[in-house]
Recover the amino acids of this structure.
């Protein structure tokens, strides 16, 4: 069975009854079911000068979610290397492959989206806020997007065959394309600290829970 790159579509509908018309209206409003995006293959697209194009329609937000972390500035003397919430996703085919094999396949794509820590006027000294659920660190606005790709074909000389792309540490809209980061800027940290194949699976319970024993 072949898999096609997911593109949001609206399917035409022929309506002959009021009930059918209502169903068609729902399709127009809601678009494709999320499962379509979660089952479709994603193939990275590049420009002619090897810049990675950002996935269409914020597709990564419908991929399997594998974990999150936050390291606020207020808890790191104001100098946290990554002072945001990180939400991490994996492309659907690689998710299926990892569940079967416990390994990241050739072509694995991991997406990381960032949000600022919510800190409106009146935030506590440690950067936390007091919300209805208690005191803690809550998500603010989107503040960046990155992608990591594993490919021996594309990156034969990079450690682990992983390459890293940043579409900007900024509010939406993110940059439309991203330049590949130098290997020394990212790979060394992943190689030294990541629990498994340059991936921080120690922070991703969703992956750990499905890894074959």
């Amino acid at each position: 069975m072949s898999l096609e790159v997911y593109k949001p579509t609206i399917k035409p509908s022929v309506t002959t009854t009021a009930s059918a018309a209502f169903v068609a209206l729902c399709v127009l409003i809601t678009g494709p079911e999320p499962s379509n995006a979660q089952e479709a293959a994603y193939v990275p697209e590049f420009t002619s000068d090897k810049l990675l194009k950002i996935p269409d329609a914020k597709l990564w937000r419908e991929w399997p979610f594998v974990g999150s972390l936050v390291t606020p500035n207020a808890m790191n003397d104001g100098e946290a290397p990554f002072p945001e919430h990180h939400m991490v996703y994996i492309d659907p085919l690689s998710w299926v492959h990892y569940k079967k094999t416990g390994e990241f396949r050739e072509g694995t794509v991991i997406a990381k989206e960032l949000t600022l820590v919510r800190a409106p006027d009146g935030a506590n000294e440690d950067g936390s806020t007091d919300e209805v659920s208690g005191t803690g660190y809550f998500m603010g606005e989107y503040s960046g997007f990155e992608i990591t790709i594993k490919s021996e074909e594309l990156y034969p000389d990079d450690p682990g065959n992983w390459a890293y792309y940043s579409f900007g540490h900024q509010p939406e809209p993110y940059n439309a394309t991203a330049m590949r980061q130098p290997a020394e800027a990212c790979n060394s940290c992943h190689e030294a600290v990541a629990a498994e194949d340059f991936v921080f699976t120690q922070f991703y319970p969703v992956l750990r829970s499905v890894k074959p024993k």
Q: What stands out?
A: The domain at 40-210 is CATH 3.50.70.20 (Chalcone isomerase).
